[in-house]
Amino acid sequence: MDKNEILKALANPARLEILNHLKDPYAHFPTQEHPLELGVCASQFERCGLSQSTVSAHLSTLHRAGLVTTRRLGQWIFYKRNEETIAEFLAAMQKEL
């Protein structure tokens, strides 16, 4: 876990919103055609008013920081929160601050 990479990723409001939406995908992405158990398809985030390239950049940053995991099925990439890394980061921040 790279705390500095995570802090950089969390410094952007759009990435925080993406993580928040991924926390409860059934509430935020009820119309996704694929089962939400797979994760959320990147194209679903375009509904938030962001372009595909912006969404891709934000998801890449979150993935590099270890805050989301990916799963590829055919042409689609699905994203889920990495709850283990998030919990580890929160515990470290609580201990250090």
Question: How do the strands and helices of this protein lay out in sequence?
Answer:
Blueprint: H1 3-10, H2 13-23, H3 25-28, E1 40-41, H4 52-64, E2 68-73, E3 76-81, H5 83-96
Antiparallel strand pairs: 1-3, 2-3
Helix pairs in contact: 1-4
Protein name: ArsR family transcriptional regulator
Keywords: DNA-binding, Transcription, Transcription regulation
GO molecular function: DNA binding; DNA-binding transcription factor activity
Q: Can you describe what's shown?
A:
This is ArsR family transcriptional regulator. It contains five helices and three strands. The protein has 97 residues and is an alpha+beta fold. A three-stranded antiparallel beta sheet has the order 1-3-2. It has a single domain, classed as Arc Repressor Mutant, subunit A. The relative contact order is 0.20. The model has no long low-confidence stretch (mean pLDDT 90).
Can you give keywords for this protein?
Arc Repressor Mutant, subunit A; transcription; 5 helices; 97 residues; 3 strands
Alpha-beta content class: alpha+beta
Question: CATH homologous superfamily name?
Answer: Winged helix-like DNA-binding domain superfamily/Winged helix DNA-binding domain
Reading the helices and strands in chain order gives HHHEHEEH
Strand content: 5-15%
Which blocks of ≥5 consecutive residues have pLDDT under 50? none
Q: Rounded to an integer, what's the Rg over CA atoms?
A: 13 Å
* Overall geometric form: globular
Average pLDDT works out at: 90
Spatial order of strands in the largest sheet: 1-3-2
Number of helices: 5
Number of domains: 1
Helical content band: 40-55%
**Span from first to last CA?**
17 Å
Which class in CATH terms? Mainly Alpha
Q: Determine the CATH topology.
A: Arc Repressor Mutant, subunit A
Please give the number of β-strands.
3
Main sheet properties: 3 strands, antiparallel
Overall CATH architecture: Orthogonal Bundle
Organism: Rhizobium hainanense
Domain HTH arsR-type: 1-97
Keywords: DNA-binding, Transcription, Transcription regulation
GO molecular function: DNA binding; DNA-binding transcription factor activity
